[in-house]
From TrEMBL:
GO CC annotation terms, alphabetical: cytoplasm
One Gene Ontology biological process: tricarboxylic acid cycle
Name this protein carries in UniProt: Citrate synthase
Alphabetically ordered keywords of this record: Transferase, Tricarboxylic acid cycle
Catalysed reaction, written as an equation: oxaloacetate + acetyl-CoA + H2O = citrate + CoA + H(+)
Coiled coil segments of this chain: none
Molecular function terms from GO: citrate synthase activity
PANTHER family: CITRATE SYNTHASE (PTHR42871)
Transmembrane segments: none
Organism: Cochleicola gelatinilyticus
Stated family: Belongs to the citrate synthase family.
Amino acid sequence: IDIKTLRGVTNGITTIDPGYKNTGSCESAITFLNGEEGVLRYRGYAIEELAEKADFLEVAYLLIFGELPSKDRLAKFHSDIKAQSHVDEDVKKILDGFPKSAHPMGVLSSLTSALVAFNPTSVNVDNDEDMYKAIVKILAKFPVLIAWTYRKRAGLPLDYGDDSLGYVDNFLKMMFKKPNGEYASDKKVVDALDKLLILHADHEQNCSTSTVRIVGSSHAGLFASLSAGINALWGPLHGGANQAVIEMLEAIKEDGGDTHKFMNKAKDKEDPFRLMGFGHRVYKNFDPRAKIIKKSADDVLDSLGIEDPVLDIAKGLEKEALEDSYFVDRKLYPNVDFYSGIIYRALGIPTEMFTPMFALGRLPGWIAQWREMRLRKEPIGRPRQVYIGETLRSFTPIEKR
Ligand code: ACO
């Protein structure tokens, strides 16, 4: 069915589907996901193969433009990104206005939105060339915004990276460069982060991606749509889960490490506590990303020579959940966020920065979905409702209420 036919079909009939559990909002050629079988593919390539063989920028290109880039194309893409990596100095003044305690996701969405003011030509993009420019700009500036957000919290000088480095290595340098400029690039760390970012790069019509598409459908512009997506990702039921997972694992450790006690809390319907990092709207078998990340967590801790007791608690919880009828019956398995925080921690990334890391990984997916929505000339997103409020009432003056 083409989009025009779909438009007509909605006239006259309203279906209700809270949480859109069975409602497709669009047709898409970007990401294939089979939740029953635990299959995830970007543009037809298995996630397992991409995580092993590709790098993050290559996957970003694939997601956005639909094909793996040739060596020359990738080199040009990278050099176009490098050429746009400066952020207007006045953005630092905006950043300065935030208290140090501000959550980085709030800061990041505000700064991304502020970029619109500094790059007004990136708003009205309706041809491929202007789109390419806007895409390259945000891929270049977003890691700078994340690094600045982190460095401001840490009381470190705000600076730029090093154009001679790869995209991920450069990001790590912007984050962790010492005030005297010292930074030791570590291949193991770069590879681990590269893999994590690839695993987060797209996940079809999740909460933040749907937000990006729906905001973009009003032609609000790429940066504004992304800013909205960042806010959607912030919530603990979505991207905020990675921070919540590590906080939960630490709370279990502090409490003496009794995983069973917390399993029972999660099962108690009177208790709002949920086992963070478990369950998924679409995966009802296992999350293929979680499998790769679990192995990666083991490898990273091993190769960096770190012992993290929280990893044992995580493994203990997973083992118990796999044998517990509550979790088995509801098909609740560890999701992508369950082990990612352990890796971020090993890489030296502080807990409040976990969700911005997710945003960095998801950026190419959001861009790809926004671009697809614009190229397909999709109509403005505007769901209907089933009204359940009062029928007509007559107005009572305030003195008589
Ligand atoms: N702990 C305990 N019980 C759970 C959990 C959990 N983590 N997740 C779901 N359940 C239970 C629900 O209470 C419900 O039980 P019931 O049928 O007895 O009422 C049942 O499983 C189905 O759960 P829903 O909330 O209806 O499932 P939904 O698809 O709406 O939610 C979600 C999916 C939000 C991911 C949920 O599983 C959850 O809150 N998980 C914890 C947060 C989390 O890890 N989020 C990250 C998701 S991945 C991502 O965004 C990157």
